[in-house]
Amino acid sequence: MDRRAFIVLVGGKMLAGPLAVEAQQARNIPRIGWLTNGTPSSISPTLEAFRQGLRELGYVEGQNIRLERRYAEGREERFADLAAELVRLKVDVIVASGPMIEAAVKATDTIPIVMSTAGDPIAQGWVVSLARPGRNVTGLSILSPETTGRQVQLLKEVVPKATRVGVLNLGQVNRKAPQPNLEAAKVAARAWGLQLQVFEARDPEALTRAFKTASKARLDVLLVFPGFLGLQYRQRIVEFAAQHRVPAIYQFQEFVEAGGLMSYGANLVEQYHRAATYVDKILKGAKPADLPVEQPTKFELVINLNTAKALRLTIPQTVILQADRVIE
Fold first, then answer.
1. pLDDT confidence of 21, banded at 50, 70, 90?
2. Domain 145-265+299-327 CATH class label
C-alpha cells in the first residue's frame, strides 16, 4: 500500500469513529413526542413550562433529550396523521393535550402517553381508573365539576340580577361521552335561579354560528368551556363578550390576560410543568398503567378590572378579596 492510500485509509477510520459514536448517541437520546391542537404561538407558554420542568429534572433539549413537536393548528382532520407520524418515529413518550390524547390513544397502545390537560379520562375511555390507569395512558386531568359550580356562583355574585346564562361549549373530544362540567353547570344554574342555554362549536365556522345565535339570546352572563377550540380562539371569544357587553367567566387565566373578565380553574402552565415529572418517571422505567392520574388541588381566581370598567361593572369587594390575581 502506498503512503497516500495509507493516509486516506487511516484518516477515514479516524473520521468514521467519532461519527459512528455520535450517531449511536443520537439514537440513544430519548425522544418525546409533543402533540397539540394549537399553534406554536398559542401554546408557547405551556411548552416553555414543560421544558422548564424537564430542565429541573436534568433534561436538556438537544443534549440528553429530543422533542418532536407536532401542531394540528385547530384542524381536526390532521389529528390522526400527526399522531401516526410520532408513532412511526418510535418516540419514547407522547405528551398530548385535549383532543390529541384521543388521537394518540387510537394511534398506539404501546408507546406511553402522558396527558398534560385532560377532561374526564375515564368517560373518554382512556384510563380504567384515576388510581390505576391500567393502560398506556396517564398524566393530569383538569376535570372538576365543583369548579363549574363555583364559576356560576361567581357570575351571580358579580351580576346579581342575572337571569340568563349561556354556556359556550367548545369541542367535546368524544361526542358520546358524558360531560360532567355541563351537567354541573345545569345543576348550578337551577340552584341560582338561572335559565341556561348551551351553544356548541367544534370548528371555527361553528364558532361563528354559535356567536350569532348567542348574540340573539340576550344573555346576562356567559360561561366558557374551552374544549379544544378555546385557547387558540380565545381572542375572538373575548372580543365577542366585549362587543355584546356580556360578563363572562373562563376556565383558564389566559383568557383574562387576553381581555376576558374572570377565570376560575387550574393553572394551565403548572399542568404542563407537572407533565414533565410523568415523562421523567416513564423514562426511568415506570409503567403508565401504574402511575395515578393527578387532579388539580388548587384553583385560581383571576379578575381583570380593566374589562370590568369597560363593561361598566363593579366587582364586589368580597369577590376581589378572593382573587389570586387582579389585573388593573
1. very low
2. alpha beta
Task: Kindly give, in sequence order, each residue whose CB lies less than 8 Å from that of residue 244, ignoring residues fewer than 6 positions away.
Answer: 214, 215, 219
Cα(47)–Cα(192) distance, rounded to whole angstroms? Answer: 38
Q: Are 136 and 288 in contact (CB under 8 A)?
A: yes
Separation of alpha carbons 225 and 247, rounded Å: 15
Q: Is the pLDDT of residue 35 over 80?
A: yes
- Kindly report, residue by residue over 76-129, the tens digit of the pLDDT: 789 899 999 999 999 999 999 888 899 999 999 999 999 998 888 888 889 999
Class of 3-143+269-290 in CATH: alpha beta
Q: 222 by DSSP, 3-state: which? A: strand
Q: 252-258: long-range contacts at Cβ-Cβ below 8 A with a sequence spacing of 24 or more?
A: 252/226, 253/300, 253/302, 253/325, 254/45, 255/224, 255/226, 255/230, 256/302, 256/303, 256/304, 256/307, 256/327, 257/327, 258/234
- Distance, CA of 150 to CA of 259 (rounded, Å): 21
- Of 180, 80, 166, nearest in space to 120 by CA: 180
Kindly indicate the confidence band of residue 23, based on its pLDDT and cuts at 50, 70 and 90.
very low
Rounded CA gap, 82 and 317, in Å? 48
CATH 3.40.50.2300 in the chain is located at 3-143+269-290, 145-265+299-327
Q: Which residue in this structure is represented by grid cell 390537560?
A: 117
